Amino acid sequence: MQHTLLFLPDNISVSIEPEESILAAAAAAGVYIPASCGGEAVCGKCRVQVEKGEVQTTITANISQEDWLKGIRLACTSKAVSDLVIRIPESVMADGRALKCRPKSTRPISAKSIATLVGTWETAPPVRKILLDLPPPDLNDNISDMQRLLRGIKRALPDRPEPQYDHPELLRDLPFLLREANWQVTVILLHGKRLGDPETIIAVEAGDTTDRLYGLACDIGTTTVCGALIDLNSGKILAEASAYNAQIEYGTDIISRIIYSLKEGGLKALQAKVVDTLNTVIQDLCRMVTISPSDISYIMTAGNTVMAHLLLGISPKFIRESPYVPGLSLFPLTKAAALGIMAHPSVRIYLYPCVSSYVGGDIIAGVHACQIHKSRDISLFIDIGTNGEIVVGNSEWLICAACSAGPAFEGGGIRFGMRASPGAIENCHIHPENLEPMIVTIGNTPPRGICGSGLIAAVSELLATGIIDQRGKFSRELAHPRIRRSGDGWEFVLVWSHDSLTGEDISLTEIDLDNLIRAKGALFAGYQTLLASVGLTFSDLDRVILAGNFGAHIDLERAISIGLLPDLDRDRFFYLGNASLLGCRISLTDQRRFSERTEVRELMTNMELSDNPDFMNYYIAALFLPHTDMALFPSAGKSKS
Amino acid sequence: MQHTLLFLPDNISVSIEPEESILAAAAAAGVYIPASCGGEAVCGKCRVQVEKGEVQTTITANISQEDWLKGIRLACTSKAVSDLVIRIPESVMADGRALKCRPKSTRPISAKSIATLVGTWETAPPVRKILLDLPPPDLNDNISDMQRLLRGIKRALPDRPEPQYDHPELLRDLPFLLREANWQVTVILLHGKRLGDPETIIAVEAGDTTDRLYGLACDIGTTTVCGALIDLNSGKILAEASAYNAQIEYGTDIISRIIYSLKEGGLKALQAKVVDTLNTVIQDLCRMVTISPSDISYIMTAGNTVMAHLLLGISPKFIRESPYVPGLSLFPLTKAAALGIMAHPSVRIYLYPCVSSYVGGDIIAGVHACQIHKSRDISLFIDIGTNGEIVVGNSEWLICAACSAGPAFEGGGIRFGMRASPGAIENCHIHPENLEPMIVTIGNTPPRGICGSGLIAAVSELLATGIIDQRGKFSRELAHPRIRRSGDGWEFVLVWSHDSLTGEDISLTEIDLDNLIRAKGALFAGYQTLLASVGLTFSDLDRVILAGNFGAHIDLERAISIGLLPDLDRDRFFYLGNASLLGCRISLTDQRRFSERTEVRELMTNMELSDNPDFMNYYIAALFLPHTDMALFPSAGKSKS
Q1: Nearest Cβ partner of B171 from A322, A327, A608?
Q2: Does ipTM come in above 0.90?
Q3: Which of A386, A598, B196, B221 is deepest in the core (most CB within 10 A)?
Q4: For chain B, which domains are there?
Q5: What is the pTM assigned to this prediction?
Q6: Distance from CA of B117 to the nearest CA of A (A)
Q7: What would the 3-class secondary structure string for A390-410 be?
Q8: What confidence category does residue A96 fall into, taking pLDDT thresholds of 50, 70 and 90?
Q9: Chain A hits for B179, Cβ within 8 Å
Q10: In A, residues 489-548, which contact B (CB 8 Å cutoff)?
């Protein structure tokens, strides 16, 4: 249950999630609280006074009994049990001046209901079960067991063409199963490609099992494989689970995976790893709801082009070499068990088609989920991961591209960069006067490094406080112990060694800043190139849809402030979360929506940016915070003032 | 090259095949020559005088120089090099009386051209090759390799739907193959089930291989697997080969195979054996024409219901138990390699559908081959093997049944019975006066036993000479050393021990005769039951089609004389040989003819004879030579007079 939290003295009211710390809620609301250790009550700086309401907290030696009785608590280890009024004490500077906290950023615009984007869907999945009571054979009716089954299906579904069957185990087991089941069986049918196409018999089960029909939706990411187990009778999510893609052992990004795949046995090893990961997710999901993996009747997946190739055991070699040709872009419906996936031998795995070598099935699934192709409104769809994939268009046209943004937003190329996992700085504020940072980490643990959202926050704060200039260079004039020149050049120390988990200073360097600027510059140039190619500008965009885990955690104002996102009316922004998984889930549940996926792919035109001169020009112009063309960022001036 | 052979003194003219011995030609023409040893010049009895023309012969110590100069040769080791005039010397009986030879049977009616039955067929096979010259990819055209291939196919075949592909090896190899082939490839396409259905990509080969397209037609018999390698560009048979079904190790008939299949590991062992046999045939065929098994693009087979189940690894358990239900009757098009067959991984094996547990795909293929279903004429189709399968009908209806004839015609249940292999007595005459047999064996070797056609000949001769009566009992009045009573009851010695390969007397016993009478009685009762079920009699039959190896070697007059075949106008009889293999060959070559197979199966109604009271009555009445109702055999009196 959410509670309301009122921060005094600035009268800033926010809502707080049950598991959220007061520190994190304050950071999200832009309320500055001194905090260095990221949580766990180590530094003891984030003292707040509970004026009203009840908090759940950890008793700590950092607070005296006298202060405890006054309601002083550490924000990092306190959670709301009721609505709260919290006073942020004035802190005291080295020179004895009181330092008032003041809000700087608002909490990111709350995610609009995805329903407006995604629309509704029916529970009419691509697999169905029918119950048959077959008459036992006698000498006057001794057709084969399979003919008897097919005749039963025909009587149950008189208007449908005879289903297909090609599954050796089914054929082998059927005679025994029919007799053991005393001729009452449940048949699982898989829809054909098109509406009038015959269905396929997936399995036959003894007795009436019609109340149990399950499907797996799965986003196969380079980093993470996320699965959702769906009850296909109700359309409800029964369980969700995820696991790191075990291919990480052979490289963190798709390029290093491609390189590994070219080694002797590399392709096989990569395929085995992703299959292992899928099996881990399947086992976890099945354990949660006490079913067997063989109870899953359909697996609907999406992944980028390289992930799809590796899962199917197809070499991605030519994806990396100009002119960047994938082996396949439409993937055949495959028997999951044949790939080594824990599944009933006849159950099919579907992979969303890809557009090109670097715009994959995850993007098609995401666009498909949010129905850009069904609306006349012009949308910009952005999925930021190791690459940034972007799509612009509407129901009449779609144009897509991949920007080689580099892995900065996933922690790559950043000295203390890391993935969004416990210990990662995910949010920070820098006090405008004393330049002390307020550090919020994932899991409230002492900081180990900084993840993408933390990086955007930090850079935005560095820029706002004047610690860096628009080129991403440190101000040589500011004399502050955190701003220093090290072996790697200029840097800003976010966390001192005594507050960090690793025992070393955590800093941001000018090289880090340069990498981040290149990354956001590539994305921004991508938006501009796509829009310009169809004669449009940012103002023509009705919607900007942020997909991916990163998109869901981004601080919109700060992302705009550094020029990662266009400076548009905030109401036009939507956060979709894992759009690829959502697309899979919708397709798994609604056969009609599933059938519309082809429209997305057919509308979609791929644009190669790598040799595009416009892109290069836009890119050079975007290597500035937020941009060389400040007319594109009208609100930048405002936030600075 | 055939030659003409005139036998004196009876002025009987026959044609003789290059490899045929004069003895065999004489036996076929009904010209009696004393012969005991079956060939190889052992007994030295079969002396003939060459009056005109040239023979190729073996010099033998059995003929004196004087006789040699007179033109005396042994008929068993002499072949015709030119047209011949041959005089059969009078032989001398023990009492010194000259014994004149005289003809008794005419040569079996020569097989009518199968063309009249089988019709013509096109060379338009279910697989085809097309050559593609694909444009190499560049940055403006970097669709996936598979899309490029499909686009190339679409351009080559603009009116066809996009072909399917589901073959993992193809997908895996394609990127490399296209580049190695410098974008010129040959695609092998498999037709869909119906005309408008999309084709399936079987394989892609580098360069232009359109001149090489091969298919395998195969009859999978309980005893023998026969294969024919077909050039699908020309429709020509390139090679034929056969091998004993290695399942024989586990039982000679289908019932013993079913019993074995129920043992632990039995089904797997039986499947492995038939696959081994198929692989032997495939290797033999490929060696003959110097191609690789992976060059074969389609495998078209037919076998009885049990053979089909065992090949697919499906238990035939319930085939043996009333109400005799097969697991499957329509067999899915299967990837041959998945069964262990030496084949390209994507090549399909087709199995002709079966009608019932005991009327299998071999019968459908045979009926399909001779187009009974295309003619208004009423045909009786007979395939005699371990079981006898019979079909009656025309283009409007077809009715079929299996008669449990027992294996007498394949040597089963006959004391010296054996399969038609070297050393088997395949023909014999018994001299009407001295009752001495004239023995012709397969391979002209000393006799080891007697096969089906030899059995029919022997029984017919025993009946004609009065050695047995119409009940199959030996005449107790004839005093002849060959007619004797042994431990097994009465018997007739066909070959004395000194002339046999085994060194023991080869005889026919009353038990043997009883088994034969039951076998032919079951078949005849089968014909009658099917005809009566549709209100017809034998005189309504326009054609009697004899299928199977046995049918091709049968002596029509003798088969009628013992009541195995109905006594109809001899012009109505047709010999089709291996009709199942022929059906496979036609289907493999002509897609249109192939598509008509479903008509056969849909027209066909199965009749169970096992519990049919009419059948039992007909059967009892048929346990007589030729029959209790002599009105059914008008020519029986004639041949006796």
Answers
A1: A327
A2: no
A3: B221
A4: 3-103 (3.10.20.30), 127-206 (3.10.20.880), 231-362 (3.30.420.480), 372-406+520-640 (3.30.420), 408-515 (no CATH)
A5: 0.82
A6: 30
A7: EEEECCCCEEEEEECCCHHHH
A8: low
A9: 318
A10: none
